[in-house]
């Protein structure tokens, strides 16, 4: 009879959005690592799949021997990471995941090798252990993994979620996840047993135009000033509606205020760079915003005051 391991079709348990950091004796708190969520089936070979069940080892060949780092046949839930300058780099791991050229994949693997951080175990020896409480699963996980440069086990703290959140914020990481100690592993389900507390940064941006999208969605085109030069900062769609924009005075112009048309903005309606909006986003070293959310238009700030 086929079991969980043989079927190779596990949907990771989902994490609920989003809570303010809190302390609790009933929870453990872990760092939310900034990578790609994957499930690995480890026995005589390594079979790693992302949330869409795509095989990942052809794209991350440096992890092909991961199965040698566990003592028993198992299924691990983990984050796939690329570390740059001591911290996870989401763009690097995401760019690699999109590659198809084997030579370029090999170059990337040599330059920035990937690794995994395991935070749960669903299967041990020949047993499905998803219905064991989290803290029991954690014991199995610690016991089965032989840590090296390819794999480590996620550390956690008990009780002190707020302290961990502040530390993570200091280090410019993504956030933390709070998990109930007695939580079972519900495949593909989102429950309040696991909640994320994310760190968002807030920026003031100039609205430089908009792009009408399907389903009555609108993307705002964002800019910020570097000295007196307006610099393109990407788009924000989440939280935006044309109705909100229409509540404010704006002027349509027939040219890009950046002096050129940034790629992907060929269909834009350009605006005089006068309106200012607030955008929340995840920390990033990149020039455009990551996972930006529109929080509103502010009329108490001049466009020229929106500095990089």
From TrEMBL:
Residues spanning the signal sequence: none
GO terms classed as biological process: DNA recombination; DNA repair
InterPro entries the UniProt entry points to: ATP-dep_DNA_ligase, DNA_ligase_ATP-dep_C, DNA_ligase_ATP-dep_cent, DNA_ligase_ATP-dep_CS, NA-bd_OB-fold
Pfam families named among the record's database cross-references: DNA_ligase_A_C (PF04679), DNA_ligase_A_M (PF01068)
Segments forming domain ATP-dependent DNA ligase family profile: 107-198
Reaction equation(s) it catalyzes: ATP + (deoxyribonucleotide)n-3'-hydroxyl + 5'-phospho-(deoxyribonucleotide)m = (deoxyribonucleotide)n+m + AMP + diphosphate
EC number(s) given by UniProt: 6.5.1.1
Coiled coil: none
Sorted UniProt keywords: Ligase
Molecular function as annotated in GO: ATP binding; DNA ligase (ATP) activity
Superkingdom field: Bacteria
Homology family: Belongs to the ATP-dependent DNA ligase family.
Protein name: DNA ligase (ATP)
Species the sequence originates in: Lacrimispora saccharolytica (strain ATCC 35040 / DSM 2544 / NRCC 2533 / WM1)
């Amino acid at each position: 009879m086929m079991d969980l391991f043989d079927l190779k079709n596990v949907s990771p348990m989902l994490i609920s959005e989003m809570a303010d950091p809190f302390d609790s004796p009933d929870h453990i708190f872990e760092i939310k690592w900034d990578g790609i969520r994957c499930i690995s089936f480890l026995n005589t070979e390594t079979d790693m799949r992302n949330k869409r069940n795509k095989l990942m080892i052809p794209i991350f060949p440096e992890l092909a021997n991961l199965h040698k780092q566990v003592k028993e046949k198992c299924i691990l839930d983990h984050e796939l990471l690329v570390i740059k300058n001591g911290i996870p780099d989401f763009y690097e791991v995401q760019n690699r995941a999109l590659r198809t050229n084997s030579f370029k994949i090999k170059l990337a693997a040599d330059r920035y090798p990937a690794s995994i951080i395991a935070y749960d175990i669903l299967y041990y020896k020949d047993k499905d252990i998803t219905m064991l409480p989290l803290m029991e699963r954690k014991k199995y996980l610690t016991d089965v993994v032989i840590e090296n440069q390819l794999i480590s086990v996620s550390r956690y703290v008990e009780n002190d979620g707020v302290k961990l959140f502040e530390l993570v914020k200091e280090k410019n990481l993504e956030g933390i996840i709070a998990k109930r100690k007695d939580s079972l592993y519900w495949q593909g389900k989102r429950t309040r047993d696991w909640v994320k507390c994310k760190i968002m940064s807030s920026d003031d941006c100039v609205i430089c135009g908009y792009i009408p999208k399907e389903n009555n969605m609108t993307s705002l085109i964002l800019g910020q000033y570097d000295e007196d030069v307006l610099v393109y900062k990407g788009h924000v769609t989440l939280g935006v509606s044309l109705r909100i924009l229409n509540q404010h005075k704006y002027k349509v112009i027939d040219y890009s205020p950046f002096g050129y048309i940034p790629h992907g903005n060929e269909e834009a309606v350009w605006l005089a760079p006068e309106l200012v909006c607030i955008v929340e986003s995840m920390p990033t070293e990149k020039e455009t915003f990551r996972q930006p959310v529109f929080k509103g238009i502010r009329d108490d700030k001049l466009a020229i005051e929106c500095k990089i």
